[in-house]
Amino acid sequence: MDADLAAAPATDGPDFWAACEERALVRLTLADGQVLTGSYTSRVGLRFLHRTGRDLPLIGEITGPYGPGDVRTVEVVRTRAQVLDDVYVRLHGERVPGREPVTRDDHEHRLQALARAVADAEADWQRQVQLHRQFREAADRIGLAAGKRAWLLHAARWARRSNAEPTMADLWVEPVASPSCLARPRPQDFDPDPRVRRQRTPLPAEVRADPFSIPNILHALKAASLKARITRSGDPHYERGHIQIDMPVKGRSRL
Length: 255
Known about the structure:
Elements: E1 25-30, E2 35-43, E3 46-51, E4 61-63, E5 71-78, H1 80-92, H2 104-120, H3 125-141, H4 146-159, H5 168-171, H6 194-197, H7 205-209, H8 214-223, E6 227-233, E7 241-246
Antiparallel strand pairs: 1-2, 1-5, 2-3, 3-4, 6-7
């Protein structure tokens, strides 16, 4: 065992459980001399040990409860913090190189780098799962929507076979998609300030002036007291889209 993983000194006496934290890896020496190693847990003041191993059931085995007279010594092998660090490393694997993002450009670059790493690890599914977790963790920091995460991942795969900037039709089966499935991220979507991310992007003047543009048609339908909404959008969203209308008739009728 490495020096930094060395076990903490054993404790005994009436307070030998005091150094134990929930989920810490501990080694118990029982009163009869038997030695058990497992994850420490307590319930309603009772102390248990969750053991796993080759000769134990797949979900492990819970032993206990242990009273003061049942245990001779308790040795903390790994603290709770060390155990959680080990779990994190197993789930996320080796970190993709790069500094921690701070600015809007940092977050965008970091997510693009992770998306490329996911695409490059296509032949190693276990590593790809770890990289997906790193990508999700980075995207969660800025609350990036699911459809925009999907765009980054699809675009990274597209970049492996083309240097051209991808369009919706390149990444999807149609030139329109539900925004919850696929949508191009805006530059402000990578901003660390949530107030900036929530700001709406103004429509171009020519779109606002065109009575047959998607936003103006939707506004006109709603002004006519119709229940209308955009179910699929193109890229950009104001150039192409599908509008669904719930007609005010008996039964369920939609256009």
